[in-house]
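STRUCTURE:
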């Protein structure tokens, strides 16, 4: 189980680093566009499209690592005041709901990417196909599903241990 958790964490970390690279590329693109516009009166064609794509990739690729680090909103202050068995059950329910939600979002994004691919949807100015971007975002969403599945398994195990100790 620990090796699977480590694999999921490493995958999330790599995706987060790619998201960081997207931020750096976005910064370089914006600065280059400003310089080209101010000095040469020739802005980069499609700069807005590229920035929008990089923003979407940044969010999609970084969301799983944020979950690995417990960076999302939590109700820890309420959970700390509850008895351990009740907190374990609530934690299981929360992780299950989150897994189902993100699973549906991932499934929808894959279908959306397929639809975009079939219709040949491209960015307005740069004419870049958008379906690969949505597929990468879906990959990031699959990664958060893996993180949540791992957390759910861990919560179920910890809840079982608490239940056995109480019995």
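SEQUENCE:
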């Amino acid at each position: 189980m620990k090796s699977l958790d480590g694999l999921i964490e490493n995958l999330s970390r790599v995706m987060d680093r790619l998201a960081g690279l997207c931020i750096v590329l976005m910064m370089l693109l914006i600065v280059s566009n400003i310089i080209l516009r101010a000095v040469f009166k020739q802005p980069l064609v499609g700069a807005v499209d590229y920035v929008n794509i990089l923003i979407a990739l940044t969010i999609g690729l970084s969301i799983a690592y944020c979950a690995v680090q417990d960076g999302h909103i939590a109700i820890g202050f309420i959970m700390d005041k509850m008895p351990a068995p009740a907190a374990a059950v609530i934690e299981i329910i929360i992780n299950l709901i989150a897994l189902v939600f993100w699973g549906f979002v991932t499934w929808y994004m894959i279908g959306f990417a397929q639809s975009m691919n079939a219709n040949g949807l491209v960015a307005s100015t740069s004419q870049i196909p958008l379906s690969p971007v949505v597929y990468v975002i879906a990959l990031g969403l699959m990664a958060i599903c893996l993180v949540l599945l791992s957390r759910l398994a861990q919560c179920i195990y910890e809840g079982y241990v608490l239940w056995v100790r109480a019995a």
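REMARK: The helical segments are 2-40, 47-68, 76-79, 84-119, 131-166.
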